[in-house]
Write a structure and sequence with these properties.
The complex is a heterodimer. Chain A is an alpha+beta fold. Chain A has 2 domains: 47 residues, no CATH class; 174 residues, no CATH class. Chain A is built from 9 helices and 8 strands. In chain A, the strands form 2 sheets. Chain A has a 6-stranded antiparallel β-sheet, sandwiched between helices. Chain A has a two-stranded antiparallel ribbon with strand order 1-8. In chain A, helix 2 packs across helix 3. By secondary structure, chain B is an all-alpha fold. Chain B has 2 domains: 80 residues, RNA polymerase sigma factor, region 2, helix turn helix motif (Rna Polymerase Sigma Factor, Chain: A), CATH 1.10.1740; 87 residues, Arc Repressor Mutant, subunit A, CATH 1.10.10.10. In chain B, helix 1 packs across helix 3 and helix 5 packs across helix 7. The longest helix of chain B is centred in the N-terminal third of the chain and has 24 residues. The radius of gyration of chain B is 17 Å and the shape is globular. The chains are: A alpha+beta, B mainly alpha. At the A-B interface, helix 1, helix 3, helix 4, helix 7 and strand 2 of A face helix 1, helix 2, helix 3, helix 4 and helix 5 of B.
Chain lengths: 234, 178
């Protein structure tokens, strides 16, 4: 290691214990003081970032969260009461409820999920059929058989509803499947959330959304998943 | 078995401090920092089922703070006030005393500040930061290099005065060359 490389490493990763770095500092009279100066700067940096955290920050976060949660629960109860009083009307209009505007809103929501839930795309699995069923059970979804090559199975919230979130290994990149109960699109439609391609397909009492990078065969996946999923909420 | 709520509470207790420090170092405003952390945990509750691994959850939360900061910063830029240093030990005469370092650090352009703070608070490697910040490893290294270079220059000149507006313009396109 020469002095230039040593100084560069010192500025980018001063905490490194790389033996080459240490050996150079021991053997170079010009770089040894640089190492000492860097250590002093790092000490100052570590002190400088130790900004005092407001007292009870965690409690305040949890408190606000519980209020938000109660507010959501109250709204849910109110919605249920309203829904019960107009159940016939709702049933009559259910099929027509999700037109073009709602598909666009769904597309926006799917884009947000894809951007935020990167951990799901990064998961390498494999996830067994039992684990997939386990992940979907709390939402009232069943999966009969194995849809194969699952690398992630979990839940997420789509349009305010807890939904199934599955990632499958595609031919080139992961394929994401959202199983969205209580949202019924009118017909199969293509969506284009950001750089991804997708399809949304009505199925029983919910919607199956399949999203992947261009080049994957999405309809075949939607069909395969559709043949296996059971919506107990419908 | 740990419930969803218990996992969330454990995550808030374990990580809110570091998130707050990171948020403060980005926005330099206590109220905004707390707001960023609140928003981040509100999002975390939504995606909690996927955040089972602690290290991954921490990176995800840090990234979310940064994104939320970028989103809010477009609408509101807190005025730069005098840096709070009451919590730090007094001056020792050393160029690296914590008060001077904090002032200099907060005067760095945000793109340099964020990599340095992620490295110091989060202990992230260059590769990890490259992934979190969605930029090449070489760019992260260049920013770390320049951040320390500028910090040292400010500390030596004793002039950690101006922030983002003056210094962003002269960084530019050669970033990945260092």
């Amino acid at each position: 290691m020469n002095c230039l490389e040593f100084r560069r490493r010192l500025a980018t990763d001063p905490g490194s214990r790389d033996p080459e770095l240490v050996a150079h500092a021991r053997g170079c009279s010009e770089c040894a003081p640089a190492l000492a100066r860097a250590a002093r700067l790092e000490q100052g940096l570590h002190q400088a970032v130790r900004v005092p955290v407001p007292e009870n920050l965690a409690s305040r976060i949890l408190l606000r969260h519980s209020f938000d949660d109660r507010h959501r629960a109250r709204r849910r109860r109110l919605s249920l009461a309203l829904a019960a009083s107009v159940v016939v009307l709702v049933a009559g209009t259910l099929a027509a409820r999700f037109g073009a505007d709602d598909v666009s809103a769904l597309e926006t929501e799917v884009l947000s999920l894809m951007r935020n839930a990167t951990y799901a795309l990064e998961a390498t699995g494999p996830v067994s059929a039992d684990a997939v069923a386990e992940a979907l059970r709390p939402i009232g979804l069943g999966m009969e058989g194995s849809i194969g090559n699952v690398t992630f199975a979990g839940r997420c919230v789509v349009k305010g509803t807890l939904s199934g979130h599955i990632v499958l290994r595609g031919s080139r990149a992961p394929i994401t499947v959202f199983l969205i109960p209580q949202t019924l699109v009118a017909r199969r439609e293509s969506i284009h959330p950001g750089a991804w391609n997708g399809v949304v397909v009505p199925h029983s009492s919910g919607t199956i959304a399949v999203v992947a990078e261009p080049g994957e065969t999405l309809d075949a996946v939607a069909e395969r998943v559709g043949a296996m999923v059971r919506w107990s909420t419908g | 078995m740990t419930s969803r709520r218990q996992r969330f509470e454990a995550m808030v207790h374990a990580l809110s401090g570091d998130l707050y420090r990171y948020a403060y170092m980005l926005c330099r405003d206590r109220a905004m920092a707390e707001d960023l952390v609140q928003e981040t945990f509100a999002r975390a509750w939504r995606y909690l089922d996927g955040l089972r691994d602690e290290a991954r959850a921490r990176s995800w939360l840090m990234t979310t703070v940064r994104r939320e900061f970028a989103r809010q910063f477009e609408r509101y830029q807190p005025p730069i006030v005098d840096v709070e240093t009451d919590d730090l030990p007094g001056r020792t005469g050393s160029e690296t005393d914590a008060i001077a370092v904090r002032r200099a650090l907060l005067a760095l352009p945000v793109k340099y500040r964020e990599v340095l703070v992620l490295q110091v608070i989060g202990g992230y490697s260059g590769d990890e930061m490259a992934q979190m910040l969605e930029m090449p490893r070489a760019t992260v290294n260049t920013r770390l290099f320049r951040a320390r270079q500028r910090l040292r220059a400010m500390l030596e000149s004793g002039l950690p005065a101006t922030g983002d507006t003056q210094t962003e313009a002269d960084d530019g396109a050669q970033e990945s060359e260092a």
